[in-house]
């Protein structure tokens, strides 16, 4: 699985859109979430928070303002 990281300067106020690499479903998630976030459709892991940094597992991650 391809994994990428993005740096988020304002973690408390950032929402990001992540596309599931498996089924293509997009989800808007809170980047500072302390829990893991999975795809609503196929349960693929999309985001996890490691030591304050959001680790993105999905594709086409972008900030939502
Ligand atoms: Zn999915």
What features would you describe in this structure?
This protein is mainly β and 65 residues long. The chain has one domain (4-64): N-terminal domain of TfIIb (Single Sheet), CATH 2.20.25.100. Helix content is 0%, strand content 46%. It has no helices and seven strands. Strand 4 and strand 5 (45-50) form a beta hairpin. The radius of gyration is 11 Å and the shape is globular. The model has no long low-confidence stretch (mean pLDDT 83). Residues 20, 22-23, 25, 39, 41-42, 44 line the site of zinc ion (ZN).
Summarize the structure.
By secondary structure, the chain is an all-beta fold.
Order of helices and strands: EEEEEEE
Strand order of the largest sheet: 1-6-5-4
N-C termini distance: 28 Å
CATH architecture: Single Sheet
Label the overall shape: globular
Average pLDDT, rounded to a whole number, is 83
Ions, cofactors and other ligands present here are:
zinc ion
Number of strands: 7
CATH topology: N-terminal domain of TfIIb
Major sheet description: 4 strands, antiparallel
Supply the CATH superfamily name: Ribosomal protein S27
Query: In which range does the helix fraction lie?
Result: under 10%
Q: What would you call the structural class? A: mainly beta
Please, how many domains? 1
Return residue spans where pLDDT drops below 50 for at least 5 consecutive residues: none
Write the SSE topology:
Elements: E1 4-5, E2 15-19, E3 26-30, E4 37-38, E5 45-50, E6 53-56, E7 59-64
Antiparallel strand pairs: 1-6, 2-3, 2-7, 4-5, 5-6
The protein binds zinc ion (ZN).
